[in-house]
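for the recovery benchmark. tokens below, seq after
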């Protein structure tokens, strides 16, 4: 898919106030600092479209971007860090869970995980929560530039094997990316393009 336009539309914390155009929508979610906003900028080839930072907790609201005038991309705050107290660390911000439950346009959630780490409880729990709520998702491994090329496949396989020891019967679709090395862009955009085609032909 060629990106011909990418515009910021709005930020808010209320799912009811999100854009109401019936366009297919893709959300990027994952732990704070995993690289959600950087990945969006890499996909769109726009350095400053989504705000990024080395400090976790940069993205605080639901941010809608309209792409090619016919789909939405959504940058969300990270979980597991900002505004989450120690006591209920695994409680996801209410407006984020509300977003996933209520957003009818959502066709796929991308759950980002750092390729260097084994499955973290908070990520596994979030994926299980998406599954329980019937929300389609795919896994995006981020920061692949931090591993030697030979280690990438091993890390991905180990991650998926551990995940499959849990509640999953089969591995979700997954993508290996690096925003700094522009890796994984074509595969992800093709995947989105295919889902968009299905959306518009049905
Ligand atoms: N090496 C490397 N660093 C990355 C990559 N993607 C993001 N980073 C760095 O990771 C940090 C966090 O990036 P963000 O894109 O702001 O992460 P986020 O998930 O949007 O974070 P929050 O909005 O705080 O939840 C920044 O310092 C980025 O430069 C990558 O592919 N490779
Ligand atoms: Mg962010």
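predicted aa per position
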């Amino acid at each position: 898919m060629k990106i011909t336009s990418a515009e910021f539309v709005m930020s808010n914390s209320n799912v009811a106030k999100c854009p109401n155009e019936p366009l297919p929508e893709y959300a990027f979610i994952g732990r704070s600092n995993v690289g959600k906003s950087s990945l969006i900028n890499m996909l769109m080839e726009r350095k400053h479209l989504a705000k990024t930072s080395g400090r976790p907790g940069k993205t605080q609201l639901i941010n809608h971007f309209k792409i090619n005038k016919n789909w939405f991309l959504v940058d969300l705050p990270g979980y597991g860090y900002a505004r989450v107290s120690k006591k209920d660390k695994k409680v996801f911000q209410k407006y984020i869970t509300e977003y996933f439950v209520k957003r009818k346009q959502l066709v796929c959630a991308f759950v980002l995980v750092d390729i260097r780490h084994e499955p973290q409880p908070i990520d596994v729990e979030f994926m299980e929560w998406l599954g329980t709520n019937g929300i389609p998702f795919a896994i995006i491994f981020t920061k692949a530039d931090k591993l030697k090329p030979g280690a990438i496949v091993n890390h991905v396989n180990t991650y998926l094997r551990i995940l499959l020891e849990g509640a999953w019967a089969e591995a979700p679709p997954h993508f290996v990316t690096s925003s700094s090395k522009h890796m994984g862009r074509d595969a992800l955009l093709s995947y989105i393009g295919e889902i968009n085609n299905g959306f518009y032909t049905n």
